[in-house]
Amino acid sequence: MKQRTLFSALAVSASLLAATTVWAQAPSAAPGAPAATGKSQLINRILVVVNDEVITRQELDERVEMIERRLKAQGTALPDRADLEKQLLERMILDRAQLQLAKENGMHVDDVMLDRTMERMAEQNKMSLQVFRNQIEREGTSYAKFREEIRDDIMMQRIREREVDSKIQISEAEVDNFLAAEAKSKIGKQELNLAQILVRIPENATAEQIALRRGRAEEVLQKLHTGGDFAKLAVTYSDSSEALKGGELGWREQDRLPELFLNAISKLKVGEYSDIIRSSNGFHIIKLAGKRDASTAQAGPPPVQQTHVRHILMKPSQVMTEAEVRAKLLELKHKIDTKEATFDELAKTYSADGAAAKGGDLGWIYPGDTVPEFEQAMNKLAINEVSEPVKSSFGYHLIQVLERKSEDVSKDRKRMIARQAVREQKAEVALQDWLRELRDRTYVEYRSEDK
User: Fold this and answer.
1) 4, 136, 314, 315, 321 from 351: Cα distances, Å
2) Mean pLDDT throughout 366-374?
């Protein structure tokens, strides 16, 4: 364990230390009842101090039960309880460190944004929100706890975007090389489903530490050679963020995967796994879990529809409720429809958007350039038609489509797509590097339960 820092020592308050164990005395016996033993019963205790917060035995037990239900539902063999507890506790420490960093940077997810996220999740599962909620609770998870999990997931995603994604550098030469390789490729694009077991190496590790971690990876590989289940071993041993999903990274286009991973599985058949490979953050074993065609060939990207669109954006606030915003936008729509005013002048007067000065003109929009709610409403409109008020994560919009056209993807657009693919290739390694660094600089103190 790392030496305790002054900050961490001061952060753990006296009240926290006093709360290490929560005890309940046996209730007094009723008249005539057998005498109580007076023995105290252990209810809860602190397992780990993470900077200035704690993780308790009750929190860990609840998380273990939830994960066991999910693993059973996925058909993944359950590891030993002690192994699962160890894996989950490490994951909870890392999650807590990320959430603490997000809060230190002023990040938060309000209930309105969280509600919209839940609605989108229900839509993606082709359910109403109520049916989605019922399904979650049928699976044994409190909907309130599930919502808070999603809130935490959004917070962690935001801090990762800030600390990792925003710092990935892509050169023009890398984009050129990617496009050249794509043009030379004679194989149709494929999507791969990979899984990994990662044995992480600490930052600034000594030769002895590296050897120990290599030994752990070799132990896992030997278990695989003797018939061990990859998913179960990932849950038990892997330090990657996908460990509790059996190590699965999910389906991705091959050109969006790290080159290190692609080289490792280049000669594998579906279901086979690689030897141990080394990256900057540890030792990996990669499994090719699935492979499928992503496109038929090299005929080039199909034409895409672009939409020339403008909008008026209004946002609810302390002085204007959602109902008042909707009513105002309906009033503006009526003025446009009856030609009492033009869209352009109303956008300049009322729109709370950077495009207001241009009459709300957003220019030509490609599919995926805007939020789903906006795009879905936009696609349903006829030319020059003005929408009803449309709710999105930005606020409420009136939308008007001015033109549509279909054309081949432009040179600039192709470069942008290539740049995104190169970014995704780098993102996996960059994320694991950052998580390792964050974990190494987090103050962690384990509390013994043998008391």
Assistant:
1) 52, 39, 6, 9, 16
2) 84
